[in-house]
Every structure is written in C-alpha cells, then in structure tokens.
Amino acid sequence: MLSAAKRRRLKDSQAESRLFNRRALLALAVVVLIIGALLGRFAWLQVVNHDDFSARSERNRVKVRALAPTRGLIFDRNGVLLADNRLSYRLDVIPERAGELAPLLDRLQGLIELSNEDRERFIELARYRRPFQSLQLRFNLSQEEQARLALDRWRLPGVEVVPVPSRHYPQGALLAHVVGYVGRANAEDQAQLDEARRGVTSHVGKTGIERQYEQMLRGELGRERVEINAEGRVLRFLDQSTPAQAGVNLYLTIDLDLQRAAAAAFGDGRGAAVAIDPRNGEVLAFVSMPSYDPNPFVNGISHAAYAALLNSKDRPLYNRALQGGYEPGSTLKPFVGLAGLAKGLRTPADTTLSTGEFTIPGQQIGFRDWRTGGHGRVDLERALAESVNSYFYQLGLDLGIDQMAESLAEFGFGSPTGIDLPGEASGILPTRQWKRQRFSQPWYPGETVIAAIGQGFNVSTIPQLAVATAALGNGGLLHQPRLLRATQARLDRPASPFQAAAPKVIGLGDESDRQAVIAGMHAVVQGATGTARAVGIDAPYQFAGKTGTAQRVSRSRDGAEQASGVRNQALFVAFAPLQDPQIAVAVVVEAGDSGSRTAAPLARKIIDAWLLREAAVGAPATLQTRRGQQGGGDAG
C-alpha cells in the first residue's frame, strides 16, 4: 500500500479541472461585465447623448468671435463733420514669429518713434497674451514711418502694419469741450462694458458728447465663426458671420460758424461763453477758452504732453463753460429786481436814493456804489441801466435772503441746468440753511446786501446765466439746454429730430413787471446812460443786456496791489432781438477789466455773428469795425 505522504503528492486531476473551469467562468463573467459596461457607456455617449456632446465638441472647435462696429459720426446743426473715423495705420507684433522682444524693439527704435511708455506698455501686454496673438505696439504711423518699415520688413518677422479706423476731430481745439474725445479703454472701462464687448471695444468716450452718448455712438457688435485648435489659435474662417452695425450718427445744435466766431472773440483771453436759442433751449455755441487739441488723446497722449496741458497756468483741460463757477455780480440784478416786483415790494416807479454809500440801519459798515457820490434818486430802469448798487442793497434787505433765493431758484440758479454733458457744476444759491449746514454759522444782514448784487456766497455757472436770461426774454419758459438736435441710423436715411422735454413755466408776476426789467436791460446797452451803451448804441437791432464785474483777487501772493484788468472777472448777459429773441448769451472773461469794457464787446460779436451772419460774410471789415468799439462806465 502507498504511504500517506505519497498519496498526498498525487494530483487530483478532476478536482483541479473543476477548479480551473470555475475560475475561468468567473473571469469570463467579469470580462463580459466589463465589456458590457463599456458598450453601455459607449452607447450612452454616442447614442443617447450624441447631440449634447457633438455640440460641445463643435463649440471647442468653432468659436464665435465678436466684430467691433464703426463708431457713429458727429455733425453740427448744418451737417458739418465734427468727429469722424479716418483710416490710420497701426503697428502690430506677433511674439512667436518675432522672437525676443527686447532686440526687436531696439531695431524698431531706429525706424519709428517709440517712446519708453510705448515699450513698457507693450512688454506688460505681452505678459498676459498668448504668443500667437497680435499685440498693438504703435498707433497712427506716419507715411514716412510706414515707408521705413516696408523697406526693412525682411528683417522684421512678426511685424505687421495694419490699417484700422481711428477717431479724428477735424475741428481740433474749437470743439474739444463740447464733442470731447475717445480714448483707449482701460481696465475700469472694460469692467463697465457688457461681457460680449470686453476685449473687443478698444476705445470709449472719455469726455463731452462722446461720453454722454457712448451707448448710441458705439453701435452693435457683429459675429464671425472661426475654427480653432486646442491652444485657441485660429485655423480658418468659416462662412457664417453677421456684420457689425455702425453706431448712430449725431447732429448737434451747435452752429460751427457761431462757435468759431465766439472762440475768436476771446483772442488770448480766458473765459467761457454759452449761446442758446430762447425759443427751444438749443445750444448754439459752447466755448471754453483756452482749449486743447483732443486728437492726441485718441490713441494715448504722451506723459510729457499731458503734463504740459495739466500744469499750464491757463488750464486748457478745464471746461469753464460746464464746470466753472463764478460770482455773477451785477448780471444777477435783473432777477433780483423782478423778484422785488413779483413779491409786491417794489413798483417800477419806486425810487431809492444813491449817495455813493449804503449803510444798514443800526450798523456803521458802509457798502459802496461804483460811482463816487452816487447816482441820486433812481427807479428800477435807471438802477439797471447804470447798475446802481444801492437800489439793490435796499431791495435785498427788504426781500430777505430766503425770499430772494426762492425767486432765483425759479430761474435755475443753484441747480444744474441738465445740459447733456457729463460733469456739470451746480453753483451755489446761498440761504440761511445752506450757510448753517456748510459753516455752522448764522446768516447776517450784510451777507444779504452783498448777495443782492450777485457777490458774496453766490456762485453761478455760465449755462445757468444763459438759461435764466433766455427765460427772461421769452416770457418765462425755462428750457433745459441741449446739444443733441437729431439722430441718424445711417447716412442714407433721414435724421430723426430729438424730442426735447417740455419747458418749465416760471411765475414772473405781471407781464408789466417783466417788461419793466427788460426796459432796464435795454437801457444798459442802448440807453443814454447805460453801462454798455458803447457796444449797443449802433447795433442794427434792438436788444437787452446786463454787465457784471466781480472781484477775483485784489492782491498778488507777495501782497502787491493787482491791476483792475487782473483782479476782476467780467460778465455780460444779453438776449436779442428785443421782441421775439432768437439768441441769449452769457459770457465771462477771467482776469477781465469790467463787464462793460471786456465782456460786453465780446458778447456783441457773438450776437452779430448769429443775427447778421449773412451780412458778416459779405462785409467782414465793416462788422469788425463796429465790433471793435468799447466803452461804457466801470459798472457792475
């Protein structure tokens, strides 16, 4: 018999075969399950969700890119172009083809003007863009620079001269403070854009009309389909695209000829002028002097050029016509006089004695008239014609500051006019409450006296004075001044007039009261003793005006007495013709002599340019002679 050890060493073939078969069947079952799962997953991906994954794949392969539209044009009221899009040439660089950027920039430095700012901006831009993406290096290449680049193109791989539309302002500095300018969109600008526009819109309106009507001017984006690879590189353009829709064209209320005449009237002086149509509130001229050329701002002005503008003592970037605040001086007297009539505190025939100095009862401080010895006994018409301070000192006391402010607020003083430009100042219309909030101090009678002649805490803007003067001339309709006259979807379509807001009706009291004030203003320029008679007595039309002179500074920093032409700011308001006014003007000349000698002749030139524009074309010498006359007293 076999021993137990030998029996253990013998194999049980049948048992091993059964074990193997069981294991093989188990492995086969596992394999079948795995294959079944794979086939099921494959069927789910390829059959059940075919449309979804196909669309995802297509989106990864095909990209829809936005196309930037052409910016809308801007015209004056007569169709003269104020802002257009001109073809300019830009220098682009594709880093992966250009190689090392620093040596490339050194080579380009000898061919084109390349500032350190351009280099720094380009290097910074290259850090965040893919190597195959085109980077903008320089804008507005000159023809000479283009020629140099063309000759050296063989040694400048990856450098391309690209034609692009660029904003251009053919009138230069003449309308910089009205039209404004566009500039390259910075990070803050991009954040405010719709998501679809980010990275596509390269320029946005920064100031003026360009900023105010940015939404209308920028147009609608187009679409194009391109095939890309995994890196995002464009492989080819597909045939399905939607063209961009150009921005809306704007027609302004500005008359370019009048704007040019108003700017020329200032010469080298500093100041502002606003002319509006009293019948509808259209702004005919809007001048801030000195001005600046907006074209360098479009594609990035250099630091040196910008610093020169910013640090200039003339402050050309400051929009005096929109943001400037000035003591209105005696130009406020017609409105104070009308308040006295409307409140029943005066009649046109009531008189006040002017002795040369006015004293508040119970006080010793005197307030002077501009004429030594005074004007004698004066009524409203003469008080306005000769700008008699004493008449308005007493009227101011009788009204009180709160009643006076209430009446002046009706004409828009102390509030923005609502002109369609960004950044308008509101001025200051002082009251007891205003002073207590501002200075935590009570109001004093002496401050009322000064406020009645437009000085003290009073601060007005030139649009406010123009709008108020227009309302006085048109019978009490306070129009919101506006610069947009019409819009146009395309050049081959008619323009659509802009619908203006209804004017506010001012309670002027009796019509006889308004006529009494107008009679006084008429006497200012065309009366025998008016402060501005020298500029109005020979006018071929009847008009009304009021001079104003407010002291800016009496002494220089070293304590020296300043000349009158430096220490005063001169103002003048007017409307013409006397019946059915067609233009209202407000003018301020900084460092002017007086309203009668400086501001009134300037305003007369503006009125002449509008009312006598046909004659001005035919006989400029005659008009120039008439406009050049000055005179009048040193009133207001």
| Count of distinct structural domains | 3
CATH superfamily of the largest domain: DD-peptidase/beta-lactamase superfamily
Major beta-sheet overview: 7 strands, mixed
Helix content: 25-40%
β-strand amount: 15-25%
**Helical/strand content category:** alpha+beta
What are the key terms here?
seven-stranded mixed sheet; disordered C terminus; 39% helix; 23 strands; Beta-lactamase; alpha+beta; five-stranded antiparallel sheet; 636 residues; Penicillin-binding protein 2a (Domain 2)
Helix/strand layout:
Layout: H1 4-9, H2 13-48, H3 50-61, E1 62-67, E2 74-75, E3 81-93, H4 95-98, H5 101-109, H6 116-126, E4 135-138, H7 143-151, E5 159-168, H8 176-179, E6 182-184, H9 187-192, E7 203-205, H10 208-212, H11 214-217, E8 222-228, E9 234-242, E10 249-252, H12 256-266, E11 270-276, E12 283-289, H13 303-310, H14 320-323, H15 333-342, E13 352-354, E14 357-359, E15 366-368, E16 376-378, H16 380-385, H17 389-399, H18 401-410, H19 432-439, H20 445-451, H21 462-474, E17 477-478, E18 484-488, E19 496-497, E20 504-505, H22 511-526, H23 533-536, E21 544-551, H24 564-567, E22 568-576, E23 583-592, H25 595-611, H26 613-618, H27 620-627
Parallel strand pairs: 2-10
Antiparallel strand pairs: 1-8, 2-3, 3-4, 3-5, 6-7, 8-9, 10-18, 11-12, 11-23, 13-16, 14-15, 17-20, 18-19, 21-22, 22-23
Written account of the structure:
The chain has 636 residues and is α+β, with helices and mostly antiparallel strands. The chain has three domains: 59-88 and 165-248, Penicillin-binding protein 2a (Domain 2); 103-162, no CATH class; 256-306 and 321-627, DD-peptidase/beta-lactamase superfamily (Beta-lactamase). A hairpin with a 6-residue loop joins strand 11 and strand 12 (283-289). Helix 12 runs antiparallel to helix 25. The protein is elongated and about 150 Å long. It starts with a helix and ends in a 9-residue tail after the last helix. Residues 554-561 and 616-634 have low confidence and may be disordered.
